[in-house]
Design goal:
Elements (H helix, E strand, L loop, with lengths): L5 H4 L5 E10 L2 E4 L16 E5 L2 E11 L2 E6 L8 E6 L1 H24 L5 E6 L5 E6 L5 H5 L2 H9 L4 E7 H6 L18 E7 L3 E4 L14 E8 L4 E8 L2
Antiparallel strand pairs: 1-2, 1-6, 2-5, 3-4, 3-6, 4-5, 7-8, 8-13, 9-10, 10-11, 12-13
The structure holds zinc ion.
Zinc ion binds next to α2.
Length: 239
């Protein structure tokens, strides 16, 4: 059974020394992973594989029996000890946007009577969009969301993650907040729950800040109608 990935348990770890467990041209299997593979609307980490005599950008990470395959640019055949490094600035931005997406999602869920998320995408340009299952009449209220989001940032609430059996979590209303995607069921049958102070709990495999006060204040850039029951908000930083 694979251990829990280090990008979840040690999100501060941006450098990993590992031994190659298995290899193919342009790919190595490692028994641990610090690079977030992408998923749930969060972009993959920007990471580099270093080996004795070379280095290449990692192009994909995929869970497999015995670990995680790391695909990298080129066709090198790599053996022995390697090092993986993760771009700290990009990870920080993704963790910040991801945390803000949880906050926005939880406020909408509470303010709009359990409205579900139908889509989420973080962007490298420092914005993110969320789609909600909401009628058109709610557009004006969505425009005012920045106020309550920024209040949560000012309150500097702690963020933590814990494990829970997937089936139990699936039975609790509100823990699985997305209409389309369920958070990943781990090898051990658990799911990771991310908690923000006492305002939000939801299943999630991504990376987050340690407290809401680490995030910069936001503004709502745009609210769009995307179909009869779908409202899309784009959120960016103030100033
Ligand atoms: Zn998350």
């Amino acid at each position: 059974m694979r251990p829990q990935p280090l990008y979840q348990t040690r999100s501060d770890l941006l450098e990993l020394e590992a031994d190659v467990v298995d290899a193919r041209p342009g790919m190595v299997l490692l028994d641990q992973v610090i690079a977030f593979p992408g998923g749930g609307g969060q972009l993959p980490d920007r990471a580099v594989l270093h080996w004795d005599g070379g280095a290449a950008a990692i192009t994909g990470v995929e869970a497999a029996a015995g670990g995680w395959w790391h695909a990298f640019e080129g066709e090198a055949e790599v053996a022995g000890p390697v090092r993986v490094t993760v771009d700290a600035g990009f990870r920080r931005l993704m963790a910040e946007l991801h945390t803000l997406a949880h906050i926005a999602n939880s406020i909408v869920y509470q303010a709009f009577d359990g409205a579900l998320l139908t889509g989420a995408q973080l962007s490298a340009d420092g914005t993110f969009r969320l789609d909600f299952d909401l009628p058109a009449s709610d557009v004006e209220r969505l425009r005012a969301l920045s106020g309550p989001i920024n209040e949560v940032i000012r309150a500097d609430l702690p963020i933590r993650a814990f494990q829970m059996p997937w089936d139990d979590a699936n039975a609790v209303p509100g823990l699985f907040r997305s209409r389309s995607v369920s958070p990943p069921r781990q090898d051990d049958g658990n799911v990771r729950i991310v908690e923000i102070g006492d305002i939000d709990r939801q299943g999630c495999g991504g990376t987050h800040l340690k407290s809401t006060g680490e995030a910069r204040p936001v503004r709502i850039l745009k609210v769009d109608n995307k179909g009869r029951q779908n409202r899309r908000i784009r959120v960016g930083f103030e100033g």
